[in-house]
Amino acid sequence: MTLETPLSRVLGPKTATAMAESLELHTVRDLLRHYPRRYARRGEMTRLDDLQVGDRVTVLAQVRRVTTRKMRNRPGSLTEVTVGDGAGEMQLVFFNRKHGNLREGAWGLFAGTVGEYRRTKQFAHPDFHLITGDDDEDWARALIPIYPATKDVSSWVVQKSVRLLLDASGGFGFVEDPLPEDLRARHGLPSLPAALLDVHRPTSQDDVDRAAERLKWDEALTLQLVLAARRRAAALEPGTARPRRGGGLLDAVDAALPFELTEGQRAVGEELAAELSRDHPMHRLLQGEVGSGKTVVALRAMAQVVDAGGQAALLAPTEVLAAQHARSIAAMLGPLARAGELDGDPAGTRVVLLTGSLRAAARREARAAVADGSAGIVVGTHALLQEGVDFADLGLVVVDEQHRFGVEQRDALRAKGNRPPHVLVMTATPIPRTVAMTVYGDLETSVLRQLPSGRGGVASSVVPASDKPAWLDRAWERLREEVAAGRQAYVVCPRIGDDDTGTAETDAPDDADGAPEETPGGDRRPPLAVLDVAEALHEGPLAGLRLAVLHGRMTPEAKEATMRAFAAREVDVLVATTVVEVGVDVPNATVMVVMDADRFGVSQLHQLRGRVARGKHQGLCLLVTELPLTTATGARLTAVASTSDGFELARVDLETRREGDVLGAAQSGRRSNVKLLSLLEDEELIAAARTEAAALLATDRGLADHPGLAAEVAALATDERATYLEKA
Fold it and tell me: Which CATH superfamily includes the segment(s) 43-140?
């Protein structure tokens, strides 16, 4: 037996097929790396208060009562089984179904999806495994492993399969340890066979802790070796230096700025200028709070590239934002943005807007200016990625609000350079995958925390509409007070309306920051819609105010007209979808009410909140939800309301969604190559692993003297994942 042995040779074809289809476990390696989710002790049930409706869980409990009765409204019988342990009780319900040996006093594992009936949590038709004499060897242990499972492969099936591996191999002795012995000694780590034995069949919590530390090192070191190898390769990648030149666009931008750059903007600007002057491509993440002035920093970098003879492309997620960027850049540059026109400065360049809604003639003209190089700054949406958009000399790619774009979209633009261009990625709230890449050390990062002076700041509150309906009434009163004082407001909804069943489009196909899925069961009403809410507000709490709607199905001309009317104070309240999430800048808007806030992700809520208080007045953001604040989602909303620090919110997002697959296409989610390592808890371990990885690769022979470790790296860095990482 080896780690690559197919499970079908050990477990038989039926069990192996179920594991492959349900859990994506194919080899002995996969099964041994399928670690327990937690450990149960007899006399210790999963706390029922912590169970959320919709969770699929396995609990260890004792049967307390069994009652069977005939159903009144339909034929057949209903069996109710009460199981419990020190933390409480719950119901198991069986309709017309044989429920086996569920007798009072019996112990067992019960697995199912948590439901709720008359405010009582229950399992309907759960899978169960009663503990009998045949299980003594497994169940007499102090800790009983509970594995990630599905309805087709239960935790106890995984446990028995691991036991079969153990019996067949005589204690995992066939597993070779990939970590160098001196590294294990430096960090006090057990061997890999010992760690696997302790994690799957522990006798104490100390066993589990010691094994987890070792297995985290396996994940961290292997990942760091892959990332370090990619960094070394990127450092050798040929690029084109774009050094700063005086008397050009950059000096014009600095002279035209109507405000002083913050200290942070100046420092980051110098950092970018130095990297652009080097002859290998910059790949930098610019993290900054909403309103910290990331766009100005990016514009100065674009101007430097144009001064050096290259072109810069700014990729924006929506047409509204792309058009706004193009207008503001053109206004700031003045005649220098209109080279070739009658009133243009010959020493300048052209600023071109390229979006999907451009008419054919305008699109042809824009593409021609991009292709011949006369357009030095090109602003656009996904239209920039299309075939037929060719650059003369693409020197810098700026991706605005990167969480709205997938890696494939970013790479499609990057590939349009004759040589790999410099890349600047901007975000106000890093999504978990970006945080993961940052902490693991694959991205160079710059940070803007300082806000420009004169901003009013935003106070945020959660409005639990179901529990406290008077609070929602007060929210509309508060909005009217702001309008009466001469200011304006947004009301944001997750859906458009008119039988639209999905969320509002965002002009981005890969919005990676959707809110976590809520409770199943199909009993939640559809998300609130812009058209419905606008009508209800117009006839109800906001009667008499000037309301307008804005959403992604409107024509570009209609969207532009609505935004201009709002900016000109001809509209009091704008009822919109997330089309206003980024880039919309109306300093007089001071209130935002987000309806069904629980249906938005952390990053979206933070971005939406950034649309108010962009002037001198204090802002207010009200997050309206019908979910109880005691739920996990309610706690997430409370966390968003309690802080305006985007970096702290990134940690909240990370706790909610986890890191995702750092070397895979998923930007969030539960399935990951990183199974035990936590960015929130293991930053010191990750840093130590990065140091060890750099030392191993710095030797003349690299990993040649460590074939086991090289094999682990090769298994992780498949061609597909390595290519993905390079794009990322």
Answer: Nucleic acid-binding proteins (2.40.50.140)
